[in-house]
Amino acid sequence: MIDVKVNVALESLELTSSKAITGEIYFENTNGYFPELHWNDFVVVILIWWIEAIERIEKATVGESDEFLFMDGPYLVRGYKIDQKIMRMDFVKSQLQGELIVSSINCNFSSLGESVLTTAKRVFAEINRREWDANGLDKLNIAIKRYSR
User: Fold this and answer.
1) In-domain check, residue 149
2) Could you tell me the CATH number of the domain that includes residue 23?
3) N or C: which end of the chain has fewer CB within 10 A?
4) Is 99 inside a domain boundary?
């Protein structure tokens, strides 16, 4: 089983004119980075989606799947519940000819959930430290509190 981390480079966070937060966000495991090292996307929205995906997978029955989506680019990660602790993660790039599975790994989804949660808390704290009035902060805070239980 492989450890998977969610990385956000706090120094890369930017507040757009539409009050969205962008920055580097990507998965990391022993096979490398997905979609790639320094991938830039909408951090707050994605972290909310990923917390929700982890929650759904934890409640799912064995064999069910959920998706960890990115807003930009043709990338997603599809997670399949293998048993009560293990999730298979398919790292997918969509193409005109269909989907290309770049790599697949098995991971402990509670460990992945902790990585998503820790990263979300760090991002939330950093945005508050900068005193940014950004879209989605209330939803991110609610997702963090709900998943922390």
Assistant:
1) no
2) 3.30.2450
3) C
4) yes
Domain that holds residue 9: 5-144
Q: What is the pTM of this model?
A: 0.94
The 10s digit of each residue's pLDDT in 87-129 is 999 999 988 888 999 999 999 988 999 999 999 999 999 999 9
Contact assessment for residue 24 and residue 8, using Cβ atoms and an 8 Å cutoff: yes
Angle CA(6)–CA(82)–CA(78) in degrees, nearest 5?
45
Q: How many Cβ atoms sit within 10 Å of the Cβ of residue 85?
A: 13
User: Is 84 among the domain residues?
Assistant: yes
CA distances from 131 to 126, 141, 145, 148 (A): 9, 15, 20, 23
For 61-92, the pLDDT digits (tens) are: 999 999 999 998 899 999 999 999 999 999 99
